[in-house]
Amino acid sequence: MPKDRVKKAVLAYSGGLDTSIIVTWLKETYGCEVVCFTADIGQGVGETASLAKRARESGATRLITEDLREEFARDYIFPLIRSGAVYEGKYLLGTSIARPLIAKHQVMAAEQVGADAVAHGCTGKGNDQVRFELTYTAVNPRLKVIAPWREWNIRSREDAVAYAKAHHITLPDTTGKSLYSRDRNLWHLSHEGGPLENLANAPEEDLFQLTVSPGKAPDRPETVEIGFERGNPVSLNGKKLAGAKLIEALNDIGGRNAIGRVDLVENRLVGMKSRGVYETPGGTILVAAHRELESITLDRETQHYKERVAQRYAELVYFGQWFTPLREDLQAYIDKTQEHVTGSITLDLYKGNVIVQKRSSPFSLYREDFATFGHSLVYDHSDAAGFIHLFGLPLKVRALLEEGGKGIPPVPPEEVDRD
Length: 419
Hints:
The protein contains 14 helices and 14 strands. The chain is an alpha/beta fold.
């Protein structure tokens, strides 16, 4: 018997094994109508083409699809690039940054069809359940949230397949199943599970789908020029491109040059460590180019402080806290820093390496005449002596004290501060 009465639920639907059986399970358990929602965020047309038929065969009333690729690039990926956020020094947050967008539009779909509940297929061990549900709460806290993996008795893929067979649910790819759990979108492709759960196993070459191995990459570098305006990438090799198209083009270029492979053991929000292998070819290029442009357009204090902000921003994105006041406030600070991050960066891509060739900006703070070791109007070499003396004064005092105070004259009484 259902715990709570639900009239209509909107399910975040991929068409895979889990979400296919969830449609039937929702109807069976909650006695509700089920509407499926799918967001096209660059996972590939082949994955969404037959979803409507599959959803109806599983028992859904309809499938709502939204092409969100451009919104994903403009309102999620580009702010992420501007922030410089990288989780634990390696992960470019490909799955993390997509979940708030999907969940927001899922809620909008629920409001559109008059649903009183939303559902997802995230497991009880992962980060995605948090990302989806925090977004639901932020966008529409009145909707009931159903998380089947936290309620049903299904505990394995074999259990799920058995449930599907018992309920006559047609499933694709059940015979030639992948060894890995994968998530793909415009920004990246992730691989988890299977042989990767043993840290002694190196990723097999046939695991990778977006990138060639360094050994199979061209023997000559490929040069790309990325143009930026206010921190946003706007052009590739001199040609203006919309956000999604630019990322897609760089995915192709980076992929054939073995750019963007990461093998990472990360700290999940829920408290355990997990291993993921990520392919982010275009993203790796864009993040590198943006960092180089900031190196010539941000002053030292801003650049260093922004690095600290980026670490916190990465945690917020990873933890699913996109729609929070802190993330929005940090974004306001970040976007202020990007006012002069305009220019172009030229890179060579060679067998997995991103090598900087040229940096250019009308707002560059780098001046060859100032940086030269020769004579400069803005720098007097003799000034360095006083600066070094004051900068090193704490070290001098500590060293003298460690010697027992020898060499430190007493302070005259008239110079003692008596306030």
